[in-house]
Specification:
single chain, globular, alpha/beta
């Protein structure tokens, strides 16, 4: 992984590729963008972050189709992917990250419990989405989500470049 914090490693990897990233966050409320931009020089590779908490923001800003939200729900693999692809298109970046979930303590159901999170990453390498079920209080879920998102970014950036 290299030396330094996860955020610093991601910064080096993005800079080495000449890539820029934009984030679309819901349940983390901008924590991932905050962590990335804590690194000096992050303006070289961090384009922007959108906190799209409401369904309306997801649809208006990120162009998440209303049909996707109606069919699968706000907290779903399909919505997270649409968020990642939407922010990537909107900002014309090399990578787009979409995060949606239920940080709690309210809002969970039997089928979508508190701690359910979907993290999607869209790039020229591929589009991937992972489901997580984190335990703990709201702040812990947000922190675990941000850590998992940064790890996904790192892993994808460490893959060989497409020629």
């Amino acid at each position: 992984m290299g030396t330094g914090s996860l955020e610093e490693v991601i910064g080096r990897l993005l800079r080495n590729r000449g890539w820029r990233i934009a984030t679309a966050e819901s349940c983390t409320g901008g924590l991932i963008a905050h962590r990335i931009t804590n690194v000096v020089g992050s303006s070289d590779y961090f384009d922007s972050g959108v906190v799209s908490y409401s369904n309306e923001a997801k649809m208006e800003l990120l162009k998440v189709p209303e049909e996707v939200i109606n069919a699968y729900g706000t907290v779903s693999r399909q919505t997270a992917i649409a968020m990642a692809e939407g922010i990537r298109r909107l900002r014309n970046t090399d990578m787009g990250l979409g995060v949606t979930g239920i940080a709690g303590p309210t809002g969970g159901t039997a089928t979508k419990p508190v701690g359910l999170v979907y993290i999607a990453l869209s790039s020229e390498i591929r589009v991937e989405c992972n489901e997580f079920r984190f335990g703990g209080e709201r702040e812990a879920i947000k922190l675990k989500t941000s850590e998992a998102a940064l790890e996904m970014i790192r892993r994808q950036l460490e893959e060989p470049a497409i020629v």
